[in-house]
Amino acid sequence: MDARTLDCGIMAQKTSSKSGKKRSKEQQAIFRRRRIVVGIAVVVLVSFLMFCLYSLSRGLVAVNREIHHADAYAISRKEVPSPTTKKKKSGVPDCNATNVALSLTPAASSFGVGGSMDFTTDIKYDSSSKVGCLVDISASNVVLTIKSGDDVIWKSNVCPVDADYRLLAKGDEVKQTITWTGTRTGSECVEESNLPKVDRGVYSAQLSIEGHPKAKSDPVGITIE
């Protein structure tokens, strides 16, 4: 082998060594890039899974809250029986003239035209029965009626309101305030501001329980001056 051939062999070995080192560095760079990409993908995947778990947990909490609210509402509905089924479910009779006493007290004996009068209503349990009685104390059922002779001037139950049932027993008493604005009501519900004012005169006021004509207070006289 001559010297020229030997030199060519040595040059080839050096070139191959450099190429191998270059490829090794390129491979390492490729591996690093791959690891970075895989790492980012793992972080994104973990974040997505955590978001899904968080959303699912919030959804379960919301569903549980709605279920609990529905159950509580159903229970509360059962605690106050409807007017048509209260006797069958509770066995408690209606409050009427045999177990309650009604009274009515005006704030004054007279007021001027265009004014108003406050009445204090009182429903007191007046029976020895331990069962008690059930009464809707709303203005739709405990009614204040204003009359002039036989002419009905004003009633508190012309406009409907929500029922408010109370269980009364020995020692129980319910007091409320009903205001008459010195107006005349009709058969339909009308805004108070659109009702006509009544003239001067003497009027009578009486409290009663709807559907129980004997359950009523003594009438009281009111003068509009």
Overview of the structural elements:
- This protein is α+β, with helices and mostly antiparallel strands and 225 residues long.
- Strands 2, 5, 6, 9, 10 and 11 form a six-stranded mixed sheet that branches. A three-stranded antiparallel sheet has the order 1-3-8, with no helix packed on it.
- It is elongated, with a radius of gyration of 44 Å.
- The chain starts with a helix and ends with a strand.
- About 8% of the residues have low confidence.
Concise overview:
The chain is of the alpha+beta class and 225 residues long.
Q: How does the SSE layout of this entry go?
A:
Elements: H1 3-79, H2 86-90, E1 100-106, E2 110-111, E3 117-125, E4 133-136, E5 142-148, E6 151-155, E7 165-168, E8 173-180, E9 201-209, E10 212-216, E11 220-224
Parallel strand pairs: 2-11
Antiparallel strand pairs: 1-3, 3-8, 4-7, 5-6, 5-9, 9-10, 9-11
Between the first and last Cα atoms, what is the distance in angstroms?
145 Å
Low-confidence stretches: 72-88
Q: How many beta-strand segments?
A: 11
Rg over CA atoms: 44 Å
* H and E string: HHEEEEEEEEEEE
Task: Name the beta content range.
Answer: 25-35%
- Tertiary shape: elongated
Oligomer: single chain
How would you state the average pLDDT, rounded?
Answer: 81
Largest sheet: 6 strands, mixed
Q: Please give the share of residues in helix.
A: 25-40%
The DSSP helix count reads 2
Structural class of the secondary structure composition? alpha+beta
Which structural traits does this protein have?
225 residues, alpha+beta, six-stranded mixed beta sheet, three-stranded antiparallel beta sheet, elongated
